[in-house]
Amino acid sequence: MPDHTWPDHTWPEYGAVASAEVTVAYDSTDVARLDALLERANAVLAQAVTDPGGARTAGSASAADGLIQVQVSPGRLESLQMDARALRLGTAELAAEIRNAVNQAFESSAQDSAEAARAAGTALADKVRDIQNDSMRGMSMFVTAMQDAVSRFERDRG
Description:
Blueprint: E1 3-6, E2 10-11, E3 16-17, E4 22-25, H1 28-50, E5 59-63, E6 68-73, E7 76-82, H2 91-157
Antiparallel strand pairs: 1-4, 2-3, 5-6, 6-7
Helix pairs in contact: 1-2
């Protein structure tokens, strides 16, 4: 287990200069765990920025009793399929049915996107909470080590 030694140091809160060396022992696995924790945090943040849970999804809908079918992707009409019987509707009714199908497909896409974003947000919150818990455990170990070092210093000084 490596040690890190700090030489004589002024401790203003004690009004004295430390004449003894303070040695704090640490385990190299602690450093590796901290490094892994930081890497996890960076990975979670990078994922949130580059892939917000696949929040934009495709949608599809049909109209005129299934004679008209559309598929959309974010901001685009990808396909429009019509059964030949749809042409019997007349131009105004056909146009209205196509418009309804496209709007329903976009609404479906928006709803799916919102659900995907909520799921991604929940997953991200869970990951961040895990990272926070790990960091709190690590910080607790660090504070305990520092308190032990100060206690040894006070005991050796007295």
